[in-house]
Amino acid sequence: MRNIKELVEKMTLEEKASMCSGETFWDTQTIERLGIPSVMVSDGPHGLRKQEGGKETEDQLGNRLNPITSICFPAACATASSFDTDLIEQMGETLGEECQATDVSVLLGPAINIKRSPLCGRNFEYFSEDPYLTGKISAAHIRGVQSWNVGTSLKHFACNNQEYLRMSVDSIIDERTLREIYLAGFEIAVKESQPKTIMCSYNRINGVYSAENKKLLSDILRDEWGFKGYVMTDWGAVADRVKGIAAGLDLEMPTSHGANDAKIVEAVKNGTLDEKLLDKAVTNLLNVIFDYVDNKSKHTDAKFNRERDHKKAVEVESECAVLLKNNGVLPLNKEKKIAYIGEFAEKPRYQGGGSSHIKSWKVVSALDAAKDKGRKIEYSKGFPFNKDELNQSDFDAAVECAKNADVAVVFAGLPDALESEGFDRKNLDLPECQNKLIEEICRVNKNVVVVLHNGAPVILPWRDKVSAILELYLGGEGVGEACDRLLYGETNPCGKLPETFPVKLEDTPCYENFGGNGWTTEYKEGVYVGYRYYEKKKMAVQYPFGFGLSYTTFEFSNLKLSSSKMDDSSKITVSVDVKNTGCMRGKEVVQLYIADKTGTFGRPIKELKGFKKVQLDPQEFKTIELEIDARSLSWYSQDLGDWFAKSGKYEILVGNSSDNILAKAEINFTTKKHLPIKIGPDTTMGLLIEDERTAPIVDALFNKNGNPWEEGADIGELGEGSAEMANAMFTGLPIKSIASFGIATREEVDKFTEDLKKAVE
Ligand code: BGC
Predict the structure, then answer these.
(1) How far is the CA of 58 from the centre of ligand 1 (A)?
(2) Do the strands 208-209 and 197-200 form a parallel or antiparallel pair, or are they unpaired?
(3) Atom 7 of ligand 1 has which residue's CA nearest to it?
């Protein structure tokens, strides 16, 4: 074991400061005198974007611009749809091996910001609108990559939920929303899989840059969650480097060419920065760097086998695509005449633009895949893959081609220019030329299938007219082969939507606030993000969260709980039998949601707290078990500074989509935790009778003196007392009004107040 402490002690102040920023665009600092080597980090996340070459391939900032040829796996929008942690772990293992084989110490990703609005240009690179799904899938990705002793960089920490002004915008957000929605995914990933590094975001959170945010980078990340690796900036996200060191930011990327190192040295010398904080940053860095370097010899078997890894990319995408609609036309019959329409059939859109863009090894289109298999296909371009432009002769030829076929498959999607890192989308529409052609084809052929290539929800105005819709998302370089397998039923679709497809842009939760005013973006919708919002508003959607069809059918039965009682430290196992009732092997996702029935304010109708994918042969059944604990029921109380669930009833809901709950059961939860109550003139009886410490004191006063609003009591001009009215009057009564209503004397109220204060001390 290398002694990092001793090594740090040997370093000069200047050497330590120099470690805190990159040597180049992609490499950490070398200190030859002490045998500290430079290691490389690389984008990420769904493929290796290692930039190679010497000086001649660098731009003026020293950024090497020559990526190696790599395997482009499906982007996060697709991989989250798998709802399959084993699959994503395997994909991570493949990526980790590729990194080891090419000497990359950290693969920058996964990117796990919550999809607050479907407009965010970078949603294709993020997993979900749900933090639990996000956390579990990212934990699996990290486990896989790090199994090769290569680091990951969980990014962008935190609240980078839009591309518009992402480098400066201030995300204004309340503590509860921050914890429950925007941090919970990071929390799960850190606690379960301990990523070697975290990348902080560019933006501010409530006025403080992430890169200088001690609460985020130290108090929450390290002290609460136990993070052990190093924190790096997003590229160029440093404002004040010295403040960053003090807040817990270890590495600035890319290099500052010495400028910020000098500021760190100066700050230590003039006493504004405690050298111990610098030592901490350097220790965090060296721990991870040497963990990679010292274990490299154990992984000499690592290979970057592109042929093998391409097959993995096809396999992963086959398990991610989501079948949104099917009236029986799919799987396609090999004997029928099929028309492939739309240029995406020839040039699929399979990845997004920006820092995750891979120089792909081999892209196989659906058309190539069909040709390889000798399918009976007629192809007509119909519309271009890269712009919204209607060419009348292409349009007419495509309609003619569709008319003569038994089934018309339209390959639609978003062109690169409409969705990318760096900017947000303006609307949720597909190009008009595509919508027009699909409408026209529906007039001439009753069997129309639409295959979608997009990184985020789109509006499908023709969805009632077509026979089937297959959502491929951005499916990686194997998308065409995966699509062929799925269309022809060689693989049974088993993806589920990791996000809601709304009916229109105006329905989306942060429609009125998304983007902000040029300086700030206010998260006014609070915890009501994605399905949490649509369900609360009872709003119709195009397709709900968790939804996805199969070529077979499944039945859920026999929901059982290991106990119907739970407390702060116990766990319950929820089990359910799932049976394949159709004629084809398939996979189903068991989804477990929890609904708070205690009447607590501000809780979503239900929230995802467990899921598992299961493969079943026809007529086979398996019992699936999922575990829940107190945290599964809890919300984050800012007053308590902790997670809290009130004692009372909670519903366990099990289904195969958020809108298709197939079995439910109830549990009774008891907690010893208390929410803090401030006893003062405005404290209400409602709050006091909810707390077991104060309830007896309230009861004693009202039993002695009588409750004027008791059911049936004569309440004079206010009308005949109903139970509801009595309850409302009583729960809303503040301490200061007890005497005014003649319920007790002022002396009695003073004594009552004192007793209450003592009880909650
Ligand atoms: C992106 C990061 C990326 C980095 C390096 C930034 O602009 O936000 O996700 O890892 O560049 O390319």
Answers:
(1) 17
(2) unpaired
(3) 235
Entry pTM: 0.97
Distance, CA of 235 to CA of 200 (rounded, Å): 9
- Specify the 3-state DSSP secondary structure of 64: strand
Parallel, antiparallel, or unpaired for β 106-108 and 41-43?
parallel
Instruction: Give the pLDDT confidence score for residue 13 in this predicted structure.
Output: 98
The pair phi, psi for residue 736, each rounded to 5°, is -65, -20
Burial environment of residue 557 by CB neighbours within 10 A (0 to 12, 13 to 18, 19 or more): exposed
Q: Is 315 in the pocket of ligand 1 (CB under 6 A)?
A: no
Say what the pLDDT of residue 65 is.
Answer: 78
108 CA closest ligand 1 atom index? 10
C-beta of 447 in contact with ligand 1 (< 6 A)? no
Peptide bond into 110 cis (omega under 30): yes
Query: Cα–Cα distance between 249 and 238 in angstroms, integer?
Result: 10
Q: How far is the CA of 233 from the centre of ligand 1 (A)?
A: 9
CA distance linking residue 576 with residue 560, whole number of Å: 6
Whole-number Cα distances in Å, 755 to 258, 694, 730, 748, 751:
63, 9, 19, 10, 6
Residue 639 falls in the annotated catalytic set: no
Query: How would you classify residue 103: left for phi > 0, otherwise alpha for psi between -120 and 50, otherwise beta?
Result: left
Nearest residue (CA) to ligand 1, atom 11: 235
Q: What does the alpha-carbon distance between residue 302 and residue 48 come to, in Å, rounded to a whole number?
A: 15
Least confidently predicted of 37-41, 60-64, 283-287, 344-348: 60-64
Residue 741 in this model has a pLDDT that exceeds 90: no
250 pLDDT more than 80 = yes
DSSP 344: G
The alpha carbon of 235 and the centre of ligand 1 are apart by a number of angstroms equal to 6
* Ligand 1 atom, smallest distance to 44 CA: 10
Q: What is the position in ligand 1's atom list of the atom closest to the CA of 166?
A: 8
CB 575 within 8 A of CB 628: no
31 confidence band (pLDDT: 50, 70, 90)? very high
Across residues 88-94, what is the average pLDDT?
98
Using alpha carbons, select from 195, 183, 202 the residue that is nearest to residue 147. Answer: 195
Its sign, for the CA torsion 640, 644, 645, 647, is negative
